[in-house]
Amino acid sequence: MKIIVYMQSSEGKINPISLESLVAAQKLKENKGAEIYAATFSDDIANQLTTYDVNGVLHVNNENLINYSPLHYIETFSQLHANYHPDFFIFGHTYETRDWVPRLSARLDFPFLSDCISMNPEGAITFTRALYQNKINVDLSGNSSSSIVSFQSGAYKIDALKEGAAEIESVSVDLNSVENKIIIEEKFKETDGGVDLTSADFIVSIGRGIGKEENIPMAKELAELIGAQLASSRPVVDSGWLNHSLQIGSSGQIVSPKLYFALGISGAIQHVVGMKGSGCILVINKDSNAPIFEIADYGVVGDIMEIIPKLISTIKEMNG
Amino acid sequence: MKICVLVKQVPNEDAVIKISPDGSGIIEDNLTFCTNEPDTYALEEALLLKETNEDCEVVVCTLGRNSASQILKEALAKGADRAIFINDDSMLGIDPLSIAKVLSDILRKENFSLILSGLQSDDDGYAQTGLLMAELLNMTHASLVVGTEISGDKIRVKKELESGWFQWAEMQLPASISIQSGLNKPRYASLKGIMGAKKKQIDMINLDDLGISKPDSKTKIERLYLPQKSKETHYIDGDTDAIVDGLIKILRDDIKAI
């Protein structure tokens, strides 16, 4: 069995989600005797990768690969497939992966098991995905000569990476045939007076269950009373009720406060990846089946519109 | 310009999903369905493009069970011009590449300039269909788009990246792009729109009639199951007073926030 793991990087640093996916590949090396190769387009990253327990580092050196360019990336991986015939291509499930790897799947005619949350490397290898916004899990296997797999942030822990000594193999690809019809420009950040939620000890976070914009001041008042930062899940930001900079999750900020007080948040996977590392997760939700309860330390099945006003008045009384 | 919007019918957000006894799928009886929410943003973006570009036709397309015709009617009522309904429920749960091939085979002859899709579906959540179709139909692509500008035979899109970063991409048309939720405010159907939708065309497509064979899935479902809890949750029960007492104890004694 042969596996190629792509190591996404920027400014000389390997993306942590890519490193987590390398842990998954190492498990297949250990359990199945798989030969694993870490692939990178960067000289510097290739050198960093030699210190990990892999069978080889594939350094693809081509000027068209220095910055993200989906059509060049896809052609490169098609050529890697033609040369190495791996059984699996493994990726971290980053936004970049979401952009170009589906297209690679169609080019190679292999299935792409995207956004997996775990893998069973024993027996017939199966991959686990979350369905119906985390309500159900499914175990899948590839029904194809090769498969492409991506792992969600947090599926594996970087601490579990095994060190080793690997050689770099320089790989050349011919990208002259690529007609580059997608020109990607420089990355930028918008200056919207963003709030840094990552340093907050306590966070009160609201979701769709807050119901309407008029209820936001109630959540703000609670946050102020307990010295917490106010934050939210995506639907609240999409509705325009709070600024984007207050959003927790894969497209917002990743936080791990001492207290994460989730009000009316259902717990879609995109949100959970942004807060599951919190010390104490306290949840109030009307729906006892809401997936957020799966990671809750304390849970209340109830209506925030009844509970929070009473909680606020009680804390005020205590404060005198 | 012809714009296609891919829409999908999914279970309501608050639906309780039950797994079939053999673990191969879910039980659909008693489920209520709605338009996949991310797709409503893709439709709205298409309708906005129609308002600002001349000679624009917006076609909505879905593949699904009989009741999925409802989400096409809703899209027509909001302002889409025409609908394509691939009425087939035998492909539930198969891999997205096989689905994208069927969709591409059917939609190829339409020669769309632009295909829009929601960033992912709230059921399977693969986030791939529109991007797979870009490859199969030889179109350019972009994902998680939060802004679009069309000029001539090019489209400029603003893409969302992680942690507050953005990026513009300029692409030749035809293009297939997935739309990030929240970039616009999806409209409601007006009464006039609802009445007008009744006269709009829904092309019914049956795969057997077209001689399109149903694909074998490139993935195999081993089993569906309820997620294992990773933590033990302590529940606070009782009436509102008891719950508030419980919350106060946690905030004061455990967390020391008050």
Task: Provide an overview of this structure.
The complex is a heterodimer of chains A (320) and B (258). With 320 residues, chain A is an alpha/beta fold. Chain A folds into two domains: 2-171, Rossmann fold, CATH 3.40.50; 197-319, TPP-binding domain (Rossmann fold). Chain A is built from eight helices and 18 strands. In chain A, α3 crosses α4 and α5 packs parallel to α8. Chain B has one domain: Rossmann fold (3-Layer(aba) Sandwich). Chain B has 258 residues and is an alpha/beta fold. In chain B, 43% of the residues are buried. In chain B, strands 11-10-9-12-8-1-6-7-13 form a nine-stranded mixed β-sheet, sandwiched between helices. In chain B, strands 2-5 form a two-stranded antiparallel ribbon. Chain B has a two-stranded antiparallel sheet with strand order 3-4. Chain B is globular, with a radius of gyration of 22 Å. Chains A and B meet through α4, β7, β9, β10 and β13 of A and α3, α4, β9, β11 and β14 of B. β18 (298-301) of chain A pairs parallel with β15 (234-235) of chain B, so a sheet runs across the interface.
